[in-house]
Amino acid sequence: MKSLIINFSLIFGFLTILAGCAFNPSNRGVLFLNGQSYYIPYGSTYIYMDSQRIAGLESAGYDIYCSLDQVLWYDGSIDPNLITNDKLHDMFSQNLAGCSSPLGQAELNYIQHREMLQQQELNMYLEDSRERELNRNLQNLRNYNFLKLW
C-alpha cells in the first residue's frame, strides 16, 4: 500500500511538471528568415513555404494551409517524420501548428517596442525586489546590533 501511494505521488508530480512545460503558441518571438521577419511561437519548428516546397507537399497529398512566402510552424516536440495529412489537420485545429506571414515594418516595430517595455518592467521589478531585500537585511542587522547591546 505504501509503495502504491509513493508511485501515485511520483506519477502525479511528473504529470504536474509536464503540464507546466506544455507548448504555448501565444508565447512568440520574432524569426528573421530570408530578409523577412515572422512572428512564431518559441519552441516551434518552422518550414519556409516557397513554390518548390508547396509543390512537393501537394504532390505528396498534403493539404496546404500556408501560402507562398509564409512560414509553416509546428510544435517542436512533434517528429516531422510522423506527420500525416490528418495529423497536420489535427495540429492546426489544436493550435499546435499554424502559418505566419511576413511582418510589416510597423508590426515589427510594435513588437520590438512592446518587448523592450516588458524588459524594462522586469528590470524595475528586480531592482525593487533587490532594494527591499537590502532594506530587510539592513533592518535585521540593526535589530541584531540593538539586541547585542542589551
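[next item in queue]
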Amino acid sequence: MTKASTGIGVAGLAVTAAGVLTNLLGYVVPLIGARRLSAADLSALATILAITAIAGVAGTGLQIAVAVHRARHGPSSVARSALLTVLVIAGALAVALPIAVVVLRLPALATVLAGISTVGVVAAGRWLGEMQGDQRFVPLAIGLSALAGGRYGGVMIGLAAGLGLTTALLLGAATAVLVLPVLHLLARRPGVVAGGQPLAARAVLTAGGATLGMLVVSYADLILARRFLPFDASGAYAVGTVLTKGALWAPQVVTIMALPRLAQADRRTLRVALALVAACGVLLVSGAAVAGGLAFRLAGGPGYTSLGRWAPIFAATGAVYGVLFVLINAQVAAGARWPAAPLWVCASGFALAAWLVLPHTLPGIAYGALGTAVAALAITSVLVGLRLRASVTGPRPEHATLSIE
C-alpha cells in the first residue's frame, strides 16, 4: 500500500468519524432532553432544533461554495460573501424567530439563544469550506468535530446538569461562538496569500439552494406520512426513515472528499464516487433485505420488528438519494445554474401524488418516496450527461494530488 493511499484512507476515516460524531450528538440532545425537561420544554426544544436545522443549511451551502471556489481558483477572497451570508441569515432569523415565538408559543429567550448559535454554525461554513477546498481532510475532520462539540456540547452539558432549557441553550450559544476561532486557526495556512477571483454571492445562494432542496426532498416522505397516516402508522414510518437516513449519510465521506476534484472537472473522480456510493447502497439494501426485522428493532425497539419486510424499501430510498446527491454536488461544482430544480420538481410531484393518488398506508408512502428518489436521480443523470457531452473537448485536466495533512 502506497503512502498516498494510506493518507487518503486515514483522511477518509477521520472525516467519517467526524460525521458519525456530529449525527450522534444531534441525536443525544433530544434524548437527554426527554429525561431532563418537562413535556412542554421538550416540545419547545424539538421545535427550536428543527427551525435552526433549516436555517443552518446556509452554513452547509457556504461551505460547499467556498470549497468549490477554493479548489477551482486557489486561495482567494471569500470574506465578503461569507459575511453577507451570515448577515442575511441573522436578519432572516431576527424576523422569523419572533413570529415563531408567538405562533408556536416558544420561550422567547431560549429561541433567541438558539438563533445566536445558528449564526455561529453558519459562519463556520467559511473555514470548513477552505479546508475542504484545499483537500486538507484531517484538519477538516477536526474542524467538523469541534463544530459538533460547539453546536451541541454546551446544550448537552446544560441539560445533563438539570439547568433547564434556557440555560442549556445559553451554554450552547456560547460554545458555538467560541469554536469559531478554533476553526479559523485550523484553516489558516501561514505564507499563503489570498488573491485572484473573489467568491460571488450567487455561488453561495446556488449551493445553499441545492442543500435546502436535498433536505426537503429527503424529508418529504416523513412530513407526508405525518399528514396522511394515522398516528401509530406515522410513528412506525418515522422509525423506517432512520434506515433511509442511514443509507443516505453512510457514504457521505465520499462526496466530501470528491467535491474539490469535481470542481476541477475530474470525470474520473465522478465515476469513482458514484461507484463507491452505489456499492455502499447495494450493501445496505442487501443487509436490510436479510435482516430487516433486526434493523427495525435497532432503530425503534422490539415493537417494530414485524415491519422488517419494508426495510429494503426504506434503505433503497436512502441509497438512491446517496447517488443523487453526488450528482447534485457535481452540478454545483460545475457551476450549473439550477442544480436543485429536479429536487424541487420531484418533491412537489410527490406531495401532489400523496394527496391524489398514493394509498395512505405505510408501504404506499414508502413506495412513493422511492419513486420520487428514482425520478429525481433519472432527471439529474440526464442533465449531468448533457452537461458532460456539451463540455469543451480537449485534453483532460491533470488530476490534482491529494494533500493529506
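[queue empty]
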